[in-house]
Amino acid sequence: MPEERKTEKPVAIDDCWNRIGVWGKMTDRCPKLAEVIHCRNCPTYSLTGRRLLDRPVPDDYRREWTSVLARAAAVKEANIHSAFVFRTGGEWLALPARLIQEIVDMHIIHSLPHRSNAILRGIVNIRGKLELCFSIGALLNIERFKKNREEKNYISPERLIVAGREDERIVFPVTEVRGTFRYAEGTLQKLPVTVSGSRAAFTKGILSLPDIDVGLLDDHALFKTLMRNLS
């Protein structure tokens, strides 16, 4: 037969501080108050507090906190992502931050004989290593424009971004770098119906930052298409 669970007896507490102590309303006061001044200084008050802390945990209390902690864990496990935001031409875009390996100053881009085109710009020297340089703006049909340093939203000079996915590594120029932002998966908005063509094909959704809307790129489709330009 299964062993019966013993029911713990409740701890008997004499809350004298609520009767004849500083919080009590009885006319007769505790004679120890003249010596200890306040119930918090009384050994009886301290001993009772320790007994309350050492008492068995009631089953309903345990079940309640088990439920509370389980809900907290579920919230903590919500999908939180990081996006690296940059500007290409007049468009704000983003890639998963885990793909960004390095941000460097703009270098000279050397064209490849019989291979370079609007998308495959050529090669660039990054810390002594030649890397393939692509134009995301050309892939998405984003018009290039000369940035005005007096522009209100001007943040940084042009940069080269080094990104890697699995065993593939690319470099691409950007007009500005905004930085890394965290977002919950459920906050990614659908593309507006006005977005079509290449931008729609390579964009997962829209991230709404405090002052701008950002197109989150599909890194899988992006890298696959860029690598196809090598053949």
User: What structural class should be given to the helix and strand makeup?
Assistant: alpha+beta
Determine and state the CATH class of the largest domain.
Mainly Beta
* Unreliably modeled segments: none
Q: Return the domain count.
A: 2
- The CATH architecture assignment of the largest domain turns out to be Beta Barrel
Textual characterization of the structure:
- The protein is an alpha+beta fold.
- It folds into 2 domains: 16-76, no CATH class; 80-228, CheA-289, Domain 4 (OB fold (Dihydrolipoamide Acetyltransferase, E2P)).
- The chain is 23% helix and 29% strand.
- The chain contains 6 helices and 10 strands.
- It has helices spanning 33-36, 43-54, 59-76, 136-139, 197-201, 219-228, and strands at residues 80-88, 91-96, 100-105, 120-126, 129-134, 159-165, 168-174, 176-184, 203-208, 213-217.
- A 5-stranded mixed beta sheet has the order 8-1-2-10-9.
Write the layout of secondary structure elements.
Blueprint: H1 33-36, H2 43-54, H3 59-76, E1 80-88, E2 91-96, E3 100-105, E4 120-126, E5 129-134, H4 136-139, E6 159-165, E7 168-174, E8 176-184, H5 197-201, E9 203-208, E10 213-217, H6 219-228
Parallel strand pairs: 2-10
Antiparallel strand pairs: 1-2, 1-8, 3-6, 4-5, 6-7, 9-10
